[in-house]
Amino acid sequence: MMAFIPPRLRKPAGIAVAGVLFGAAWLVRGGPLWWISIPALLAAPARAIFLYWGGGQDSDAGALAASQPDERQQLLSLRSRALACNLAVIAAFIGLTAAIAVKAAWWWPFLVIFGIAGLGYLFGLLNYGVTEADTPDDVDTGHQTRSSVNYRPSQNHG
Amino acid sequence: MRNRVREQRTQRGLSQAELAATLGVSRQTVISIESGRYLPSLPLAFAIARFFDLTVDKMFDPDDEEAGA
Q1: Which residues of A touch B30 (CB under 8 A)?
Q2: What is the DSSP string of A15-47?
Q3: What residues of chain B lie within 8 A of the CB of A150, using their CB?
Q4: Segment A29-81, tens digit of pLDDT
Q5: Tens digit of each residue's pLDDT (9 = 90 or more) over A29-42
Q6: pTM of the complete model
Q7: What residues have CB less than 8 Å from A64, skipping those under 6 apart?
Q8: Distance from B12 to chain A by nearest Cα, in Å?
Q9: Are A156 and B39 inside 8 Å of each other by CB?
Q10: CA–CA separation, A145 vs A60, rounded Å?
């Protein structure tokens, strides 16, 4: 579906749709806080316009906003999302243990987040090939051949 | 890992933006590669080396730990 949307419009469109849904949820909820839907609905297009403008900037953030990152920018995005996911899992774990300790009724949303993150990680391992058969080509000796190049991955993460 | 991207680029009178456009990457990525902050993928390393008519091991020297050009 995303292929039909020009790259520069993808993130703004996603933000706009998410903002409208969020605003609509407050509207449907009703009650004294229904007015939150108004700033939410106003912020959605504003945020989408800002992202669209950002997508035209000559920067890493601009390339990501325009959904046209190169390999380094994809790596930056991937690492940022991994960090965000790690923090979310830690926060969910803290929330879950705190809710259990104080016998609160709101423990289960933390468990859902924790569970989804765990399942997502396992799905990722399966999806990206951790279970693929990898027969070593040096089965005669049983020793892996090591490169003489002293490669240090940490150099790639400046 | 030292590389010769900046040296080769300036010898040919190219700007970072022009090299980036040729390689299909961003200007920021060319800057990062030149400064040694980013090690390109193998396909990109080959693309860079081929563009400058060099081999990958001539373009990127793993034995020289000094970052940047």
Answers
A1: none
A2: HHHHHHHHHHHHHHH-GGGGGGHHHHHHHHHHH
A3: 62
A4: 989 999 999 999 999 999 999 999 999 999 999 999 999 999 999 999 999 99
A5: 989 999 999 999 99
A6: 0.79
A7: A11, A73, A76, A77
A8: 24
A9: yes
A10: 38
